[in-house]
Amino acid sequence: MFDNQLALLKGKEVEVDFHGTIYKGTLVDTSEDEVFLKTAGSLFTLPLNEIGDIRAQY
After folding, report:
1. CATH class, range 3-56
2. What residue ranges do the domains of the chain occupy?
3. Whether pTM exceeds 0.90
């Protein structure tokens, strides 16, 4: 679903909509079913199939 978008956003600052909560951080990496997001204090692993949207921060 997000494959091309994720490749373009890798290493960039993004906003991830996960169940209505917006997480902001750096898109570190992705796998077939997970997204790895680095924030100021942590590294989050979020299931890809539960993400509503991923977009670049401006």
Report:
1. mainly beta
2. 3-56
3. no
